UniProtKB/TrEMBL annotation:
Residues 8-66, 72-128 form the CBS domain. InterPro entries: CBS_dom (IPR000644), CBS_dom_sf (IPR046342), Diverse_CBS-Domain (IPR051257). CDD domains: CBS_pair_HRP1_like (cd04622). PANTHER family: CBS DOMAIN-CONTAINING PROTEIN, CBS DOMAIN-CONTAINING PROTEIN CBSX3, MITOCHONDRIAL. This is CBS domain-containing protein. It comes from the Bacteria.
Length: 144
């Protein structure tokens, strides 16, 4: 059975706590992604999403110079590299999340996105279920 370490993206673009919202948005544009982990060293502190920027930044009239830590999502649900793809897909479907940070010894080692699951479909179709069930909602996308 495939493990997350087999499919996760390990070259993850991050922001530092002192980075601002503008810098995060530019990284999202450059790397064509909608979420960037916030790390102090390798320690995962939170995640900033394009939705965080819109809801907690723009809609609350915060300047682009606002630090990412002021609007990031702090309560994160994370996975470990030895978790199976099926387990991750089930968590993502149940919690309606699109990206799952992978941590080992409290350090960010990768990230798994819905696209990764689509490429590595499982025999019981949990990944397909996750892909079909996850949609934008009013809830936060990450949980602790």
């Amino acid at each position: 059975m495939k493990k997350l370490r087999d499919i996760m993206t390990t070259d993850v673009e991050i922001c530092k706590p002192e980075d601002n919202v503008f810098e995060a948005a530019v990284k999202m544009k450059e790397h064509d992604c909608g979420a960037i982990p916030i790390c102090e060293g390798k320690q995962l502190m939170g995640m900033i999403t394009d939705r965080d920027i819109v809801i907690r930044g723009v809609a609350e009239k915060r300047p682009n110079s606002t630090q990412v830590t002021e609007i990031m999502t702090e309560r994160l649900l994370t996975a470990e590299p030895d978790m199976t793809v099926d387990e991750a897909a089930k968590i993502m479907a149940d919690k309606q999340i699109r990206r799952l940070p992978v941590v080992e010894n409290n350090q960010l080692v990768g990230i798994v996105a819905l696209g990764d699951l689509a490429v590595h479909r499982t025999t019981d179709e949990i990944a397909g279920y996750a892909l079909s069930e996850i949609s934008e909602s009013e809830q936060e996308h990450y949980y602790h």
